[in-house]
């Protein structure tokens, strides 16, 4: 197995208005790094990060794909494979930080946009996202915190930490391509196993790809993908 490079923390930018890369960020990137070789045979043509913050995750994803697209994985240097990469954040400070981090890594192949969730992008992206990554505001808080704005919107997730997550999950059937997949950070209070069961009803199956104990929370990376055609709703849950 070839060791694939990811973004460097000393080339990653954030300030007091932008989420500092933390255990959740690093766990998400670890899972992307471990999973990346699967994309050699299932090349993603469109990748999206929702809530890019400092840009550490999208810079890592772009670097992983750049390595997979080249000669080490059998693709001629003169004709590397390409992928459309998009990063979205509702915070102007985060958009700026993502752009700065990408520049510091000499990554030019990512479009960075300011939008609330997917805003006006939904029409353009419908059915085309092959890989989506999302480290949401997942911390359980009073619901009022979710709309407080500022840095609180990087972490405040309202009731069970699900207020933003539950706006995004119903978008997946329309947003993801037929082979599309989502990698999303959760904590135990978000009930990731319950999310997997709920998403069966939308034609998805899933697994907990990683778990890590951090200071005050137990983190998971939830990996969701579409059920193969013909698999009956609920059949995967029942192990059929
Ligand atoms: C937990 S931080 C993750 C930042 C970065 N991806 C990381 O892993 O370090 C969540 C990010 O989502 C953004 N965000 C929160 N609500 C959003 C929304 N409704 N639309 C777009 N971005 C949102 C925040 O501004 C913040 O940058």
From TrEMBL:
Localization terms from the record: Nucleus
GO BP: any one term: methylation
Similarity comment: family membership: Belongs to the eukaryotic/archaeal PrmC-related family.
SUPFAM superfamilies: S-adenosyl-L-methionine-dependent methyltransferases
PANTHER family: METHYLTRANSFERASE N6AMT1 (PTHR45875:SF1)
Protein name, entry field: Methyltransferase small domain-containing protein
Keywords: Methyltransferase, Nucleus, S-adenosyl-L-methionine, Transferase
Major place of residence: nucleus
Organism name: Volvox reticuliferus
Phylogenetic placement of the source organism: Eukaryota, Viridiplantae, Chlorophyta, core chlorophytes, Chlorophyceae
GO CC terms in record: eRF1 methyltransferase complex; nucleus
Methyltransferase found in the keyword field: yes
GO molecular function annotation: nucleic acid binding; protein methyltransferase activity; S-adenosylmethionine-dependent methyltransferase activity
PROSITE patterns in the cross-refs: N6_MTASE (PS00092)
């Amino acid at each position: 197995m070839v060791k694939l490079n990811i973004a460097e923390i000393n080339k990653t930018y954030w300030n007091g208005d932008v989420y500092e890369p933390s255990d959740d960020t690093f766990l998400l990137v670890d899972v992307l790094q471990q999973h990346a070789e699967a994309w050699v045979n299932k090349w993603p043509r469109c990748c999206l990060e929702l809530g890019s913050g400092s840009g550490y995750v999208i810079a890592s994803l772009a670097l992983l794909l750049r390595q997979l697209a080249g000669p080490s994985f059998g693709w001629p240097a003169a004709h590397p494979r390409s992928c459309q990469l998009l990063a979205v954040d509702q915070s102007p400070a985060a958009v700026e930080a993502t752009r700065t981090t990408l520049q510091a890594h000499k990554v030019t192949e990512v479009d960075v946009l300011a939008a609330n969730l997917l805003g006006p992008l939904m029409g353009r992206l419908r059915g085309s996202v092959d890989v989506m990554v999302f480290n949401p505001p997942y911390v359980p808080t009073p619901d009022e915190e979710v709309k407080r704005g500022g840095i609180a919107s990087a972490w405040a997730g309202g009731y069970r930490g699900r207020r933003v997550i539950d706006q995004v999950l119903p978008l997946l059937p329309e947003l993801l391509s037929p082979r599309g997949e989502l990698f999303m950070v959760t904590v135990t209070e978000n009930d990731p196993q319950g999310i997997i069961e709920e998403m069966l009803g939308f034609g998805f199956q899933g697994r907990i790809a990683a778990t890590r104990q951090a200071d005050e929370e137990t983190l998971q990376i939830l990996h969701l993908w579409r059920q193969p055609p013909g698999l009956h709703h609920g059949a995967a849950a029942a192990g059929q």
